[in-house]
Design goal:
With about 775 residues, this protein is an alpha/beta fold. The chain has 2 domains: about 400 residues, TIM Barrel (Alpha-Beta Barrel); about 350 residues, TIM Barrel (Alpha-Beta Barrel), CATH 3.20.20. Helix content is about 40%, strand content about 10%. It has an 8-stranded parallel beta sheet with strand order 1-14-13-12-11-10-8-2. Strand 10, helix 9 and strand 11 form a beta-alpha-beta unit. Helix 24 runs parallel beside helix 25. The model has no long low-confidence stretch (mean pLDDT about 95).
Length: about 775
């Protein structure tokens, strides 16, 4: 019996990678310094896993930005617009970062590649781009180099590769008339070249990540999987292959998977524990195949219940024998924080709740403990088992978790709580009369730059080094400046800037009961963007208003309607670590009622436009279509519950980013938001096609410039996008806004980009005969 890890957090225990990347991008450190930081993080990760007794330690799970982009670089699938960067003789990392972030420097001006969610997680990957005549070349040998790097430290690792079928299916076809899977014959020789180099370097196991197997694949896509792994087995008969899928069951792909000549098969037994019985009882499971049992949750922070895990391990041992078992996390530990031992402040994370939790380092220890217990016939009397059982019992019986008033309020909900008073057509007339906005009204998604000064003052306040009134005065100054700037630029619907907020979910969680927090529980969202998700451990309620003070203050500074900014219940749920002792839908309803209380308080204070952001609704969609209806019913219901109590004249906005809407457009319409804003610039307005074909009834703000790229768009660029939008949607339905919040951008580029955006909107008004304000 062995322990196997699928991947480890790569940002460093103290976000060393984030800081190094951002310093490199701003020319504050050299390339050599950046590379040195990456090497240091890898070394620490490998050494830690070795010390914790992990038998199969992954390599190539480290990335400077994204593992899918790493694969794009490896196979040389470089979009044409980056060729000049590639040919300029600059280092390969600059090309890599240009694809991830765009580039506007030294006469070069290229937009970034698209970014979207990694399956149903909050991690973002860079979407590969493929053309019909796509060619591939071996451009990066990172996976080989990192295997050798670990080997030089005396650690024999298991290299991890994103499987070729998942890679192709996660990409986007540029041009019609072909399917990305048709490129497989061209792609496979690159994988063969890499595998040959790995074998020559001494690799014995290679992990192929094919999470696409947790989705509904066509017969042709299943055949592609068969072709890939049969070909690898024939070409590399002495190489041991671990096929890893996660985030769900193999489902209708299981027959294909069981026919593959792989050496080990990974099962996510946290998301899909029932698949173990199906596989063990299948006569098609080869007698030579190892099973990697994903019993430790790689996506949540709760301590493993040894009793439940050991039952699954024991059942497998009875059928296969212990020598064919790997004990593993359910997926890569990329999705959880580094180390619970770093949480030393009991005022932030109480010892009672901390006792229920495990981060990446602790999950390694759990793997080793499970291995030790599973090999002990009398494990139920072992101290490791007894300590774990006592912790499970303390959590179940804790008085912190259950709030009868919260449960009763959910139980008393009825149908009328989930719908607006009047249909959109009637509401729109009242809102136009009340708000008096021009055609192509301009706004932003909410946040303004979180400068070093803002972050420093927030940190000083939290540490007690800045008095509360001094901090409030500082926030007032910044909010006043933001309103004045927006009026100067000419934005029609200003926002207060959110200078008091750390993160769009954490800020609300800090003010809701049933949530707790960490000091160092960072996880990667994309690139250098790290978030510290709240942890929902109990019933959720709102004891006091959360945003009313700052929104009302901003409204007092201007005659224009200031937009109230809230995060929606589904997004708060999705972007938190959620309690696993009740249905997620119930927790989401509790959050929705808390947000509803805030919406009604904002309306009472005269805030007539309220945005309830739900960027995570699409992200939370189950990977199997058979599970969609159930999820969408409660997710859309939660949004409607949080917004339906307002007057007709109150305009409800929502925001969604980096999502494909085609399959759920009816559900998006069912949300019945008066205005929806979406990411559209990287896709060049392609996402609007779904809204046009569906004849989406409400108003839309398609994002006209990419805030994740450090560049200022031209007026012509935004005009071009707006004209594309107007070609598919009437001008009366269109709003003008950036793709997302401006928190991560600098002030100078923000000002210039917004000026360009407002100018483009004014030109659009003039084109249809409406004078600018």
């Amino acid at each position: 019996m062995k322990t196997s890890n699928l991947g480890y957090p790569r940002i460093g225990a103290h976000r060393e990678l984030k800081r190094a990347c951002e310093k490199y991008w701003s020319n504050k450190i050299s390339l050599e310094d950046l590379i040195k930081t990456g090497k240091s993080i890898r070394k620490e990760n490998w050494k830690l896993q070795h010390e914790k007794g992990i038998d199969l330690i992954p390599s190539n799970d480290f990335s400077f930005y994204d593992q899918v982009l790493d694969t794009t670089l490896m196979v040389g699938a470089i979009p044409e617009r980056y060729k000049s960067t590639q040919e300029s003789g600059k280092n390969i990392l600059d090309l890599y970062f240009a694809m991830a972030r765009g580039l506007q420097k030294d006469g070069v001006d290229v937009i970034a590649m698209e970014m979207t969610k990694w399956f149903d997680t909050n991690y973002h990957y860079i979407v590969p781009e493929f053309t019909r005549d796509q060619e591939f070349e071996l451009l990066s040998q990172k996976v080989v180099d990192e295997f050798k790097e670990a080997k030089a430290l005396g650690i024999h690792t298991k290299p991890v590769l994103l499987g070729p079928v998942t890679y192709l299916l996660l990409g986007k076809e540029k041009g019609e008339g072909f399917h990305s899977i048709e490129l497989l014959p061209k792609l496979l020789p690159i994988y063969y070249s890499i595998l040959e180099k790995l074998v020559d370097a001494g690799a014995t196991w290679v992990q192929f990540d094919e999470p696409i197997l947790s989705t509904d694949l066509s017969h042709g896509e299943q055949e592609a999987i068969s072709k890939v792994y049969k070909g690898i087995a024939e070409s590399f008969p002495n190489l041991k292959t671990l096929l890893a899928s996660y985030f769900g069951e193999y489902g209708n792909n299981l027959e294909t998977v069981l026919s593959l000549p792989v050496c080990a098969l990974h099962l996510d037994l946290k998301r899909a524990p029932n698949q173990l019985n199906v596989i063990l009882e299948s006569k098609k499971l080869k007698k030579s195949v190892f099973l990697s049992l994903g019993v430790v949750d790689g996506r949540n922070v709760w301590k493993n219940d040894f009793s439940s895990s050991l039952k699954l391990i024991e059942k497998t041992r009875e059928q296969l024998g212990e020598e064919r078992i790997f004990i593993s996390p359910s997926c890569s530990l990329l999705h959880v924080p580094n180390d619970l031992d770093l949480e030393q402040n009991g005022k932030v994370l109480s010892n009672e709740v901390k006792d229920w939790m495990a981060f990446a380092k602790q999950k390694l220890e759990e793997l080793q403990s499970l291995k030790k217990l599973a090999q002990n016939p009398n494990y139920s009397s072992h101290q490791l088992f007894l300590d774990n059982a006592a912790s499970m019992d303390r959590r179940r019986n804790s008085k912190l978790i259950h709030k009868p008033k919260v449960k009763l309020r959910v139980e008393q909900l009825d149908e009328k709580d989930y719908r607006r008073q009047s249909p959109f057509e009637k509401r729109k007339i009242l809102q136009e009369r009340h708000l008096k906005l021009p055609l192509f009204p301009t706004t932003t998604i909410g946040s303004f730059p979180q400068t070093q000064e803002v972050r420093r003052n927030r940190s000083l306040f939290k540490k007690g080094a800045l008095q509360e009134q001094d901090y409030i005065n500082f926030l007032m100054e910044k909010t006043t400046e933001a309103i004045a700037l927006q009026e100067e630029i000419g934005l029609d619907v200003p926002v207060h800037g959110e200078f008091e907020r750390n993160d769009m979910v954490e800020y609300f969680g800090e003010q809701l009961e049933g949530f707790t927090f960490t000091q160092n529980g960072w996880v990667q969202s994309y690139g250098s963007r790290c978030v510290k998700p709240p942890i929902i451990y109990g019933d959720v309620s709102r004891p006091n208003p959360m945003t009313v003070y700052w929104t009302s203050f901003a409204q007092s500074l201007t005659e224009k309607p200031v937009k109230g900014m809230l995060t929606g219940p589904v997004t708060i749920l999705q972007w938190s670590f959620v309690r696993d002792d009740q249905d997620r839908s119930t927790t989401c309803e509790q959050i929705a009622l808390a947000i509803l209380d805030e919406v009604l308080d904002l309306q009472e204070e005269g805030i007539n436009i309220i945005q309830v952001d739900e960027p995570a609704i699409r992200e939370g969609l189950p990977l199997r279509k058979k599970d969609w209806d159930e999820y969408l019913k409660w997710a859309i219901g939660a949004f409607k519950l949080s917004t339906s109590g307002v007057k007709d004249s109150t305009q409800i906005h929502t925001h969604m980013c980096y999502s494909e809407f085609n399959d759920i457009i009816q559900s998006i319409a069912d949300m019945d938001a008066d205005v929806i804003t979406i990411e559209c610039s990287r896709s060049q307005m392609e996402l609007l096609d779904a809204f046009y074909e569906f004849d989406y009834p409400n108003d839309i703000g398609p994002g006209v410039y990419d805030i994740h790229s450090p560049r200022v768009p031209s007026t012509d660029e935004i005009l071009n996008l707006l004209q594309k939008a107007e070609n598919v949607l009437p001008a009366s339905k269109l709003w003008v806004n950036p793709d997302c919040g401006l928190k991560t951008r600098g002030w100078e580029e923000t000002k210039e980009a917004l000026k360009v955006m407002v100018s483009a909107a004014q030109q659009m008004r003039e084109a249809v005969g409406e004078p600018s304000n």
